[in-house]
Amino acid sequence: MQDDGQYLLDYFGFRRNPFAPTADPAFFYATRGHKECLFRLWRSIDERHGIAIVLGHYGTGKTTLLRKLITGMRQNGDQYNTAVIGSPIPSWTSFSLLESIVTQFGVQRPERSFSEYMDALYRYLMQNRKRVNTLIIDDAQNLNKRGQLELLRLVQNLETSQHKLINLVLFAQLEWIPVLRAAPNFAQRVNLTSTLELLNEESTRELINFRMRQAGASERMPYFEDIAMRLIHAYAGGSPRVTVSLCRNALLLAAQIKTRRIGRQIIVHTIEKTTLPDPDGERRIEAIEDTSVDEAIGAETPASTGILHAGIAPDRAYGSNNRDRANSLLRRVVERRSPTEPLSPTKRG
Questions:
Q1: Is the backbone of residue 78 left (phi > 0), alpha (psi -120 to 50) or beta?
Q2: Is residue 142 within 8 Å of residue 108, measured between CB atoms?
């Protein structure tokens, strides 16, 4: 049996999965906010300004932005010397954090004492002062203890008379803001804070189309109808991660029922069967449908989707009985697929 990723490649003619769940820099769609953030980060790093913080909701592209930054640094290893802590453990002591920093920079470990570790790190940074030394930490919201932030402050204080010996670039969720406010001795040393915003509807459309082009669009590529794009944006609430997940599961369902048109019924069915219950997201779906019923019906007839039988009108509202009838019809189509084809996406309990 083919795996889901290969099944999508074969059916739609993609070279790569356009909606894979990994933060691949090749699929990084840079909104205006992302571009501005990346520009400011590079400026802060190159000028050795010290501490830069990138904040954002879950799934707004922080990790992808981080990987884009790291890729650029590693392509210029003569200029940049970079260490990365992927996800610090909340229970770390300040000494544990220092040990991790020393390890990630490849510093030979001294005897086990705080002062000796700091001295070893200082000597290492001085030896590499002609390069731009940068420590990048993802999921920095895990650093919620005063001692951890105090350690970062001490590390950032290592400097020459001309510039800082080390930059700190911290990617964190918005929940970290109260922690920063409670540690003014650290927060006042932050040179740059950039907050990534959620996608608007136009950017959601551009993200979906961009990723399909990057995956190698062909004449067999799927087509997302206007109402599908609107429903995806409404349910995802502008989250790139949720958007990508919805598109991935919608394409799998479309391939299973042999259609390249991603319309209303496929998106509603995908939400119903592949996501956790989300009352807020479902209310946003209902709001979209309440204001665009006529548009949805006119844009997606039984003939255009290849899903509903002739004479059966699309359901008019996400929460209606007609929705259940449409889902039932989708299930029947899926069940008629050959048993050797991939199963439908994981169903909710």
A1: alpha
A2: no
Chain segment 274-324, per-residue pLDDT in tens: 999 899 988 898 888 766 654 444 444 443 443 333 222 333 334 444 455
Same domain, 166 and 44: yes
**Residue 348 lies inside a defined structural domain of this protein:** no
pLDDT in tens, 237-278: 999 999 999 999 999 999 999 999 999 999 999 999 999 989
CA-based nearest residue to 105, from 52, 150, 158, 28: 158
Contacts of 90 (CB under 8 A, 6+ apart): 142, 143, 144, 145
User: What contacts 24+ positions apart, CB below 8 Å, involve 32-41?
Assistant: 33/196, 33/197, 34/61, 34/65, 34/196, 36/194, 37/65, 37/194, 37/196, 38/65, 38/68, 38/69, 40/192, 40/194, 41/69, 41/169, 41/192, 41/194
- Structure-token match 């392509």, residue found: 75
Domain end residue (candidates: 146, 179, 196): 196
Q: Do residues 184 and 207 share a domain? A: no
State the number of CA atoms in the 13 A half-sphere of 130 facing the CB. 3
The single residue listed with the structure tokens 């540690």 is: 183
pTM above 0.85, yes or no: no
- Looking at the structure, do residues 189 and 217 belong to the same domain, yes or no? no
Alpha carbons 271 and 256: distance in angstroms, whole number:
16
- Retrieve residue 37's tokens: 């953030």
In-domain check, residue 239: yes
